[in-house]
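Appendix C. Worked example: PORR domain-containing protein
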Amino acid sequence: MKIRKILVNQPNRIMLLRELGKFRRELGLTKKRRFIALLKKFPAVFEIVEEGVYSLQFRLTPEAERLYLEELKVRNEMEDLLVLKLRKLLMMSMDKRILLEKIAHLKTDFGLPFEFRDTICHRYPQYFRVVATGRGPALELTHWDPELAVSAAELADEENRAKELQEKDLIIDRPLKFNRVKLPKGLQLSKSEMRRVCQFRDIPYISPYSDFSHLRSGSKEKEKHACGVVHEILSLTVEKRILVDHLTHFREEFRFSQQLRGMLIRHPDLFYVSLKGDRDSVFLREAYCDSHLVEKDRLLLIKEKLRSLVMVPRFPRRGAPKTDSVAGEDGTSGHEDGIIKEAEDWSDIDSYLSGDELHDDENDDYEDDWSDEDDDMPPDFEDDDDGTARIRLSKSIKQTDTVTNDKEKVLTPVFPDGRPRELW
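Step 2, the predicted output written as structure tokens:
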């Protein structure tokens, strides 16, 4: 993703391979690595073009180019939705003002563009404005819309209530005698934990858009409001998940407690806290079914297509089935259930999008050492994993005696396209 971001900023989206060495620190490559070996690891994303004898360039493949243009189109069409997300986020805050530095932590989760500070924040003065504070610029709400002050939990509750009334064909609208809690599959709670969950659900719902300045810290009502805020933030994200560390940045704006992670764990019927990876993630339970999103965002469908291109190997395994297309037309990657086995599998791409550095241990399998001079040489041979050149059987040489010399074959060095190479 970082290399693609650098590449698309170039004229005609093509770049000299030697110029990529200037961005080595930005890419997080502290060790010496050959960029040509890095680009060859993703043959469905990048292609190397030879211009002249000692001039190598690289660009996106036609499929990756089409996917990038599709992503730009989707982001332009979703700008109104992104403005709506920012407005709802500001409406939930205490002072209706949040630092831009903190909002930047949610840009990947909300689907905001990288340059949202210079574009979206200044294009809609009727909704919000950028103000200077002692800790940096902040985004402030200028117009309160009561029609937006309806949470996703309230809308879902109204839909579920209407479905129940329609199914049971009730004449009188009255609450059920027994309030049962439907737990996710595989979640087993003790009697005390089940009692605590039921008691918490009996507390009247507090809208995340209501004034919570009077709520006492540490009370059950304040925790009910905090759970509503986290629920609403998760419903605004693309994948209905977010890093717990990103939520902790908003303790002051939403008056979260210091034990935010513990609060999320106390409500397993609402949230699922994953310990996979270096940092914990929290998922919205109701948005998932067997580790798959029920409703997928358009940006998420594009991300699945990109993931399918990244996963195309350089050297296909023997016996692997050949596919005519990399990605399906329905937005999936050609697999029956899609590329995502679990939503946590996207943490690597999300780290690239959020600007995290590429760790060295993830690049230890790159074949050769990096150098600008070697990157400028035309790739005569395909490098194997051990760094040696591959020698192929020349097509122009025929066997003279197929009966007696069946096991003896003449090996001649050839170019990757099969043309014989001169011996020296």
